Amino acid sequence: MDAVSLFSGCGGLDLGFARAGFNIVWANDFDKFAVKTYKENFGEHIVHNDINEIELDSIPRHDILIGGFPCQPFSMMGNEMGFDDARGTLFFRVVEIILDQTRKGHKPPVVVLENVRTLRTHNGGRTFATIRKILTEDLGYRVFDTVLNTANYGIPQTRNRTYIVCFDNSDIEFEFPEPVPLERTLQDLLEHDVDDKYFLSERILRTVMSHGTGNFRARPEIDLRIARPLTATMAKMHRACQDNYVTQNGRVRRLTPRECARLQGFPDDFRIPVSDTQAYKQFGNAVTVDVAHKVAWQIRQALGW
Ligand SMILES: C[S@@+](CC[C@H](N)C(=O)[O-])C[C@H]1O[C@@H](n2cnc3c(N)ncnc32)[C@H](O)[C@@H]1O
Q: Does ligand 1 come within 6 angstroms of the Cβ of 278?
């Protein structure tokens, strides 16, 4: 089955679908560093441009459209502006692409969208109700949605994300993947010979371990067995209640980009051709490969493929 991938980033969603046998024929992202990582690992089929600038005619016919549209407008950390924020309208760009394909007689039979958990509750649930209504009533899909936590699919990271799977077939039976027991901890994924630059100086250690002020006070726990959600801004090093820090050889350090890749299910032969800052951003943004793979496999089952 041919897949088109939107907002591909470094390709977490794509890798999961590719592993399940889907053939990614076209991808897109406007971040040149994400495109660099993607190209190194997947090939030249990714187009570097703003999706709003892409000619709809240049998007090839496909059997499945996948994409984690940018989540800042919906996330708890963002300012919750939702559809009033320009980025919120990227969902509507996805709709335009589906409508264009439909006009040409090749409506994608399957659409998979991923977003932050709070998409479902944002603005009293109205944002999600709008998205669902458009997908069902305007586009005619049968829509399944749920929140899946990465930690329930074999990877020690708490990462709750909304998954929306749409079929252009009202009789389809689809089930999201069943949770599996977690058999690894964050400690199992750590590298052993780590550059000194990842260890914290006394001064930084004091800052990251501080409790915070005002209404942002939280216990600064480190050495968690299940990592906190990786974030796109973790390069900035937030306090220990937001980021993941570990103790090794009696010293505290941040995670390396390779460890972040592992916490998102990327294999160790996944190449990281960008700076640490860009790598943290890309892995912080990614869909966990194992979750994507399991969702993709369930889609195959539903299609009897
Ligand atoms: C949450 S990330 C997607 C991660 C990806 N699904 C993965 O699994 O690795 C969202 C991506 O959308 C891209 N993006 C945001 N606005 C865009 C636009 N207008 N055109 C193209 N890409 C855009 C960002 O650069 C970012 O890489």
A: no
* 2-180+288-303: CATH topology: Rossmann fold (3.40.50)
Residue 184 CA, distance from chain mean position: 21
Facing residues of 23 across strands? 2
Q: Are 145 and 156 in contact (CB under 8 A)?
A: no
- Could you tell me what percentage of the chain is helix, strand and coil, using 3-state DSSP and rounding each to the nearest 5? 40, 15, 45
Question: pLDDT for 30-74, tens place per residue?
Answer: 999 999 999 999 999 999 999 999 999 999 999 999 999 886 555
| Residue range(s) occupied by CATH 3.90.120.10 in the chain | 186-267+273-280
**Domain at 186-267+273-280: CATH architecture:** Alpha-Beta Complex (3.90)
Closest-CA residue, ligand 1 atom 13, reads 7
Q: What is the pTM of this model?
A: 0.94
